[in-house]
From TrEMBL:
This is Protein-L-isoaspartate O-methyltransferase. The gene is pcm. It is an enzyme of class 2 (transferase). It is found in: Cytoplasm. It comes from Pontibacter chinhatensis. GO terms for molecular function: protein-L-isoaspartate (D-aspartate) O-methyltransferase activity. Belongs to the methyltransferase superfamily. L-isoaspartyl/D-aspartyl protein methyltransferase family.
């Protein structure tokens, strides 16, 4: 018969082996799918190596957590592929002092990556079950610098504006004017724009001297931005 102490030691050994396996997969993901494709910001790479993506996906998706693919998370939504998360994070040029708004919390993975780098993340999710679940998960994982709100991201989060950066993780048919208004002078916003049932374009907006410039980055395919301009 196995003693309670032996059983505990065996459990701890298996847990350590599992954690090491995830760490190896995460390192391989960063090297092969992110760094090899041009992401070079050291803070972004460190965040991608740190955040445990397998903790942000449903149990039946854990085996695929470190593959460079989007994965279903329920309610018709997905977690973005790791490369896209890293790319969008690098594009906003994150710095430790920054306050960042994210639209489309989903399961909280992008928010966690941002929170590893910047001072404060405000994130909005329109689907209550996803937003509430993400809030619990982020709190359990110790992300005290992330605040989650369930609501319509079209209107942003005016009471915490302006933001040094805004990251939108759902495709809008046009850039929401309230988000542009809440972008700080010198700030950057990354957002996919285009039709719901087709290829969209990832845009980078920069606000300089009250004017906004727009740059097309690359074709993408995101879930639709819901909510619109309704309160």
């Amino acid at each position: 018969m196995v003693s309670p102490l032996s059983a505990l030691l065996l459990f701890l050994l298996l847990l350590l082996q599992t954690q090491n396996s995830f760490q190896e997969k995460r390192e391989r993901m960063v090297k092969q799918s992110i760094e090899a494709r041009g992401i070079s910001d050291k803070a972004v790479l460190k965040a991608m190596r740190t955040v445990e993506r397998h903790l942000f996906v449903p149990p039946d998706q854990v085996a695929y957590a470190y593959e460079d693919n989007p994965l279903p998370i329920g309610s018709g939504q997905t977690i973005s592929q790791p490369y896209m998360v890293a790319y969008m994070t690098e594009v906003i040029r994150p710095k430790p002092h920054m306050k960042v708004l994210e639209i489309g919390t989903g399961n909280g993975y992008q928010a966690a990556v941002l929170a590893e780098i910047v001072q404060q993340v405000y994130t909005i999710e329109i689907i209550p079950e996803l937003g509430e679940s993400a809030a619990r998960r982020l709190k359990q994982l110790g992300y005290e610098n992330v605040e989650v709100k369930v609501g319509n991201g079209y209107h942003g989060w005016e009471e915490h504006a302006p933001f040094e950066a805004i990251v939108v993780t759902a495709a809008a048919e046009a850039v929401p004017p309230p988000l542009v208004a809440q972008l700080k002078e010198g700030g950057r916003m990354v957002i996919p724009v285009g039709p719901q049932n087709g290829t969209q374009t990832l845009l980078l907006l920069e606000k300089r001297k009250g004017k906004v410039t727009t740059q097309k980055l690359l074709p993408v395919l995101f879930v639709p931005f819901t909510g619109g301009d309704k309160k």
